[in-house]
Design a protein that fits this description.
Elements lengths: L6 E5 L2 E11 L2 E16 L8 E6 L2 E9 L3 E10 L9 E10 L2
Antiparallel strand pairs: 1-3, 2-3, 3-4, 3-5, 5-6, 6-7
Length: 101
């Protein structure tokens, strides 16, 4: 149970598929997509307990580039638009660049 948000139970069933657009020695480019349904049951405090459900269609991609086994660049991007509610769209971007000395 999450005491801060008073979530008693949260479940997130979903399915997805992905494919490599480019997959060679020094470079990869992949895309993923799917559907997710989230259901959250909130703990009953003063008011009756709430149940909240919504669907999402996540879309993401990953780029990895390396050169001479000494440098690596990785970029992950993920977009989570809701398909059942209007409102904000969540976007995550994670990048890293490594140089081996």
């Amino acid at each position: 149970m999450n005491s801060e948000q008073e979530i008693q139970l949260q479940s997130d069933p979903g399915a997805g598929i992905g494919l490599y657009l480019v997959n060679i020695n020094r470079s990869t480019l992949s895309l993923v997509g799917g559907l997710v349904w989230q259901r959250a049951n909130y703990q009953q405090t003063v008011v009756p307990a709430l149940n909240r459900s919504f669907g999402s269609a996540p879309i993401g991609g990953k780029v990895r580039l390396s050169r001479l086994d000494k440098t690596n660049l990785t970029i992950n991007a993920f977009l989570l638009p809701s398909i059942t509610e209007s409102g904000p769209v969540h976007f995550n971007l994670d990048t890293s660049y490594c140089v081996k000395l």
